[in-house]
Amino acid sequence: MAVDVCEWIENALNTTVSTTERSGNMKKELNQTIFETASTLRNLIAKLTDSRDRKSSATSELEARVSKPKLELDACRGRTTEVHGAPSRTRGHEPARMTEK
Looking at the predicted structure, is the pLDDT value of residue 26 above 90? Predict the structure, then answer.
C-alpha cells in the first residue's frame, strides 16, 4: 500500500511539472517555484521511505532476537510438564461426611 501511495504522489508531481513545462502563460519565477517545490517533495518522500524501511528492518531484527528466547522458554515449559506431569483434570473427591439423623 505504501508503494502505491508513493507512486501516486510521484505521478501527481510529474503531472504538475509537465503541466508547468508546457504552460507558456506562467511567469518564470512561478515555474521555478513549482519545480523547486516538486523537488523538495520528492526528497521528503525519499527520506520518509528510507525511515520506514529502517524501522521495518529494526522491527524484524528485534522480532528475530525475541523468537530465540521464546523458543527456549517454550522448550523449558515442555520439559517441566514432562518432569512433573500434566495437572490432573479430574476433581478430587472428598470423603463422605457422616451426618446426624
Answer: no
Report the number of distinct structural domains present in the chain: 1
| pTM of the predicted protein model | 0.57
Distance separating alpha carbons of residues 31 and 26, to the nearest angstrom: 7
Decide if 100 is inside a domain.
no
CA distances from 41 to 17, 36, 54, 88, 90 (A): 12, 9, 20, 65, 68
> Which residues have a Cβ under 8 Å from the Cβ of 6 and sit 6 or more positions away?
45, 49
Percent of the chain surpassing pLDDT 90: 35
Grid cell listed for 42: 520528492
Positions of E strands within 3-93: none
